[in-house]
Hints:
72% of the residues lie in helices and 0% in strands. It has helices at residues 3-6, 9-22, 27-42, 47-67, 75-82, 87-99, 102-110, 114-127. α2 (9-22) crosses α4 (47-67), α3 crosses α5 (75-82) and α4 packs across α8. The longest helix is centred in the middle third of the chain and has 21 residues, at 47-67. It is globular and about 40 Å long.
Amino acid sequence: MTLYEHFPADMRDVVDAYVADLKPQPWPIRFLALIDLLEEKLETKSAPQRRHLIQQWSGIVTATLEHLQSDSSVVECLGLMSISFNDQWRAQALGQIERDPTVLDRLVAICPHWEDIVEGVLDANRRRPIKAAGVARR
């Protein structure tokens, strides 16, 4: 069962809308659109709200990736896979980033605050753990 299938109907509607908008786009555009979504939401939130919002965003990213053809050869997709709730994707992405340190440099060149986003995801998950083991890859 996918994360998308666990979402309530209103969250599935949000993911469906993003998938419809992003499907015809290349990965660089998809990446930036999902980053923009996070930035828009974070602008007005306090720290505890931000952690919850970052986790919610990671869930939307994961569910969106479940509907798009993920491609670990594209650095932007690899970055999104690395912060997803899908254990298999995350392990694949982190392994590739570890083997090729230029991946992180390229992500930061594309999105200068990428490291802050990753740290925010890690912090949110430390403070409010979410079980992701049941999220299956499609």
